[in-house]
Every structure is written in C-alpha cells, then in structure tokens.
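note to self: dont lose this again. the chain is below, predicted strucutre after it. 366 aa total, dont forget to put it in the shared folder this time
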Amino acid sequence: MRRWLVLLLSLCIAGSVAAAPVRIKDMADFDGVRGNDLVGYGLVVGLDGTGDSFRNAPFTEEMLAGLLERLGVNVTDDALRSKNVAAVVVTGVLPAFARSGSRIDVGVSTIGDASSLLGGTLVMTPMKAADGNIYAVAQGSIIAGGVAVEGEAARVVEGVPTGGAIPSGARVEREVDFDFSQIQNIRIALRTPDFTTATRIEDAINRDFNRQLAVTQDSGTVVVEFQDLGEVNPARVLGRIENLTVQPEDRAKVVIDHKAGTIVMGERVRISRVAVSQGNLTLRVSEAPVVSQPNPFAEGETVTVPRTFAEVREEPGIGFAEIADETSLSDLIEGLNALGVGPRDMIDILKSIHAAGALHAELIIE
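---
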C-alpha cells in the first residue's frame, strides 16, 4: 500500500505573527542584471567503450572525422570504429558582467546512444548565445554523477551516467556590451508580482534616500530614477537598495500534490463556517470455488462449482463536524487531526470545502 505523506507548512509559528522582513535582492531581480544562456555541440573522448555506436549516431562519426581533419589527420569512414567517443550538448550560463578570461561551470549531456560519460574528456567546444555569437569555449574532464553495470542477463543503472558537469569548464572569450555606469534608471522586477509588496518596496527606497526616487509601475515592477541623485555611481545605489528589507505580502494558497500526497498551506488560509462528513464504504467480492467429484469407482465426472461471497462494510467515519466561521490554518489542522482524518481523506476534504466555496484561498492541484 502506498505510503502517503502530509506536509503542512505555515509561514510562521502562530497565525498572528507577521512574516519576517526580506531583503529586496531576495525577492526581486534588477533589469539588465541577469545571465545569458549558452549552448554548444561537441565531442567527448576517452570513454571506456561506453560511447556512441556510429551506426545509430552517424553525426558522431561526422564530427570525429571533421575534428581529425582539422588536426591534420586524414581518415576514411571504414577507419572510424571507436566506441570511446560520444556527441554531447554543452550548456551553461554567462553571468552578468562576466569579463573575458573568467570561468563558468558547464553541464554536459549525451544526444546519441552512449551509455555513460564516466571518465570522458570534453574536446574544445564553442558555446553560443541566442544572438549566434560565441561567448565562451568549454573543455575539460567530465564529472559524471551515475554508474551503469551490465552483464549477460541484467543491467543496473544508478543515477544518470549520461549527464555530467565540468566545474569552471568554460572560459569567457567575449563580453556582453553593457555600460552600467551610464544608465539613468533601472526597473526592479518582483519574482512574485503583488501590488502591496511593490508599494512597500517603493516606500522603503524613498524613505531610505529621503526623496522620491522609486515609483510603482505595476504589480511586478518598481522603477528607480537616478537623475535626482546627481553624479552618483548606479552600482553603489543598487548595492544600497538591494539590502533594504521589506515585509512581503502573499496570497492565501493551498497546494496539493495528489500523487505524492503532499499538502502545503500558508498561514493566511481561512475557512468559512461549514459542516464536514467523511466515511468509507468497502465492497469486497471473493471467489471460493468448490470441486465436486464422484466416489471412487463410481460413475460420473469431476466438476467445479462456483461460489461467490459478497460483503459490504462501512467504516465508522467522522460523522458531521462543524467548522466555525473564519477558522485559521492551525485550527483547521488541529480539528482534522482530532477527528482522525488521514492524509488521503484530508486532501479530499479540502477539495470538497473549496468546491463548496468555504475555502478562502487559491487551490493548486499538481
């Protein structure tokens, strides 16, 4: 029987305690201060017979032939029968303000039928951004996080041996043109848009600088103007802004993962007055056929006589229980636990309460 797990999380210990202040840098991003995704296509060599088979991955053979030709080695298709090479996709993120010569981490994943990248080495691979330009070059030994063992009649795989990583495996060759010191304003983008949180960020910035610098544009954007500060370094201004603390506001939510049996509820969840009844009805049908056969040396034949047993059983359940008006999260949990409600039944009860219009929260079912 599958084991259900219930995880009930509140945003604080008591419902009356307000959420703790959070730094602006932990709840928002600054426009222009972001990374850029990079991708490349290359070869991994040095595998212990776990590479691509050229019959199923002809692109690997073409890449290997092209690489050897660039190195001055002329080969024919018949000469390429190695199982130590694999074609891979290399991914990474170019951080904001990354300078030429700095290093970044990259991930490596197979695209052919290679079974493992353990012990492999990535050959020099250019990495491009969305604009098609090369911004970094990756190369190095791969750290694979899994292992695969195969025998005549069994195969055991632990982890994902077809993917790996190269810490500091790419060197930045091209910088993104962005003069941060010349900007006149910057937008603060909230990761969770909310009008209350945005206005609190505006008030915190204006109060700290003692002037009207920030303006709330919408629920997810706060614009900060630098013109009234005179000759200042925008980087120093943002360093001061991102460490200001604001108490974030959030919507009441109930998240249910029906597959894992997980329930997550915030402290702002409220329940209106409602009555709940819960019980289980079990119908059990079993077959117990009886074999009938004649006595020894008597005439007749052996037959099977079907016999069916049907049983209907109803579990006691909790009866009708009334939940008072404006019940808090802690009161709801305490009441359901006192009634002996199990995790699976609790999920069904919450969905029914929401359908009845008594659950004042956004219900998210995954």
